[in-house]
TrEMBL record:
<dbReference type="InterPro" id="IPR038153">
    <property type="entry name" value="EvaA-like_sf"/>
</dbReference>
<keyword id="KW-0456">Lyase</keyword>
<dbReference type="GO" id="GO:0016829">
    <property type="term" value="F:lyase activity"/>
</dbReference>
<dbReference type="Pfam" id="PF03559">
    <property type="entry name" value="Hexose_dehydrat"/>
</dbReference>
<protein>
    <submittedName>
        <fullName>Oxidase EvaA</fullName>
        <ecNumber>4.2.1.159</ecNumber>
    </submittedName>
</protein>
<feature type="domain" description="dTDP-4-dehydro-6-deoxy-alpha-D-glucopyranose 2,3-dehydratase">
    <location>
        <begin position="218"/>
        <end position="420"/>
    </location>
</feature>
<feature type="domain" description="dTDP-4-dehydro-6-deoxy-alpha-D-glucopyranose 2,3-dehydratase">
    <location>
        <begin position="1"/>
        <end position="184"/>
    </location>
</feature>
<dbReference type="InterPro" id="IPR005212">
    <property type="entry name" value="EvaA-like"/>
</dbReference>
């Protein structure tokens, strides 16, 4: 749909911002970014401002001693293939307070009524894409229930192992499910017995927080704090009609180069939703991105090479990102110094070194056909902090510990962590 024709949405005459008539949901605004030390030191862009904190929650329950997740087959307007597996609850505050005047969100009471007899396994606020959202956060919750739960149409119980196995299928486990699954602590996992120094053995050993880690968690926290102090980032919201190098018509908004992303309008008709029909703006990325982590066995323990990445929409300057996170085609238009380190190594990786590779969709509620190629690539390369000060080797146990806290590990890295969980045992049981 043309942006100018979206029902219940309006374009503010003075600013050009796009907002909902209710004043809820989200707005599309402009962002002015100043990053003096970067290869690209300043730019402006459209960005989604959605200050509400939504709920992403998975109910879990033991059946015959094996933990199961209650997953939902959910349609989102931006999904590449229609239905994907989502958390039990995936709802913004505007949705669950019924601003849309539609149906109630199923199972929401389990996550809001704390008087119920259940166990909280994880509960933490985490960020979303810092390149497209301005300081967006969602509450990631995993609740274990002990009573019988009515199984509604469109929902099913899957074991942890089944969910992990399905992470190998393209565009099936959605982004919101992956971020919640990444918060599932190793402390409750019945890790398999392993011996030797193979990839799987090193991966299982990596689940220990400090065991064999190249850097102590204290050293990692200091490194992150140093990066947040070192980078001088000024990201200021501006009227959408003041963004530079972007073009606008009644139909859409696009960058003059034809790269990066568009802002489009959509008219949605979907079953199994609280509302059967609505219109909205969306971000449409151009090209399939690459999200990859280099992993290495250090002292028999698998480590992931993490990057202190600056994105303009982050609440606290930087978050830990995968080794590579980009859309390669975009760098054809940018200075050569902006090209991400290790991108060529990932793109040219020997197939025998690729431990995981799948194309997965990003959030389908705000992004249209946003897809990334997720990879785990094993390397033997020596990478020193002196040579690459923005990169460090961390174990999975250390990343799991950081995930207990907000704004340390970004959404793309959380997806990869969920994918890496699936590599050490496809049929893991959690106690």
């Amino acid at each position: 749909m043309p942006l100018a024709d979206l029902e219940r949405w309006h374009i503010e005459p003075e600013t050009g911002n796009i907002g909902h008539d209710s004043g809820k949901f989200f707005t599309v605004e402009g962002l002015d970014v100043q990053l003096p030390e970067a290869a690209v030191s300043s730019w402006t862009q459209p960005i989604i401002n959605q200050p509400e904190v939504g709920i992403l929650g998975i109910l879990v329950k033991e059946f015959h001693g094996v933990l199961h997740c209650l997953m939902q087959a959910k349609v989102e307007p931006g999904n590449f293939n229609g239905v994907q597996l989502s958390p039990t609850v995936q709802a913004t505050k505007s949705n669950y307070t019924k601003v849309h005047q539609g149906k109630s969100v199923p199972y929401l009471e389990y996550f809001r009524d704390r008087s119920r007899p259940h166990r909280v396994i994880a509960d933490v606020r985490q960020s979303e894409q810092g390149s497209w959202f301005h300081q967006k956060r969602n509450r990631n919750i995993i609740i274990e229930v002990f009573e019988d739960v009515e199984l509604l149409e469109g929902f099913c119980w899957l074991t942890i192992g089944q969910v992990h196995e399905l992470l190998a299928v393209e565009d099936l486990i959605n982004m919101d499910a992956r971020t919640v699954l990444s918060c599932l602590p190793f402390a409750g996992a019945q890790l398999p017995e392993v011996s030797g120094d193979g990839f799987r053995a090193s991966l299982v050993r990596s689940c220990g927080e400090e065991f064999g880690s190249a850097h102590s968690t204290g050293e990692v926290l200091t490194w992150i704090t140093d990066a947040r102090t070192r980078y001088d980032v000024d990201a200021r919201r501006i009227p959408l009609n003041q963004v530079r190098n972007w073009c606008r018509s009644d139909e859409l908004i696009w960058h003059e180069s034809g790269a990066f992303f568009n802002v489009i309008g959509v008219n949605v008709k979907a079953g199994g939703r609280e509302v059967a029909q609505w219109m909205q703006p969306m971000i449409e990325p151009l090209g399939i991105g690459v999200v990859a982590v280099l992993v290495k066995r250090i002292n028999g323990v698998l480590h992931a090479l993490m990057h202190t990445r600056v994105e303009p929409g982050y609440l606290d300057v930087i978050e830990l990102a995968p080794t590579v996170q980009c859309t390669p085609e975009n760098y054809d238009l940018l200075p050569s110094a902006a090209r991400p380190p290790f991108l060529d190594e990932v793109l040219g990786a020997d197939p025998a070194a690729i431990r995981y590779e799948t194309v997965l969709s990003e959030e389908g509620g705000r992004f249209y056909h946003a897809r990334n190629r997720y990879l785990v690539v094993e390397t033997e390369r020596e990478i020193s902090p002196e040579e690459h000060p923005d990169y460090r080797w961390l174990s999975l146990g250390q990343l799991a510990e950081l995930l207990r806290h907000s704004h340390y590990v970004n959404i793309q890295a959380r997806s990869l962590i969920a994918c890496m969980h699936s590599l050490w045992s496809p049929q893991t049981a959690y106690a």
